[in-house]
């Protein structure tokens, strides 16, 4: 019954990539480009005692926004996932005292970033297309 779907299993990584990328792009965009987003996030980081909070806000927002774009395109998805793993590990640490419901989102995004590190871009990606034309 499920043989039909197994023929198209390569699409699972494509859908997975688009799903995780949409979330990261949305959150990164809010931090970097929304009016007051960067100031609000860097203020939050400052309250938490982060050194260089504005730089950290740029780095976190950049990892999320540009990393999400790279994952969506399937280009250097593993490299992008490394930056996202670091970003989400910090977010989990920051929310460690908030209970599971307070850190649930960061935990899920961390797990999905680790999965992206292992899965890579998959068959339907720019990376795969570039490799085919490079041979």
Describe this structure as you would to a colleague:
This protein has helices spanning 3-6, 10-32, 37-48, 53-73, 77-94, 99-119, 126-134. It is elongated and about 50 Å long. The chain has 7 helices and no strands. Helices cover 80% and strands 0% of the residues. With 135 residues, the chain is an all-alpha fold.
Short description:
This protein has 135 residues and is mostly helical.
Write down how many β-strands occur, each being a DSSP E stretch of 2 or more residues.
Answer: 0
Helicity, in percent? Answer: over 70%
Report low-confidence residues grouped into runs of 5 or more: none
Query: Pairing-aware structural class of the strands and helices?
Result: mainly alpha
Query: So what's the oligomer here?
Result: single chain
Distance between the termini: 37 Å
Shape: elongated
Tell me about the largest β-sheet: none
Q: Give me the Rg, rounded.
A: 17 Å
The secondary-structure element order is HHHHHHH
Query: What would the average pLDDT be, to the nearest integer?
Result: 94
Tell me the fraction of residues in β-strands, as a range.
Answer: under 5%
The helix count comes to 7
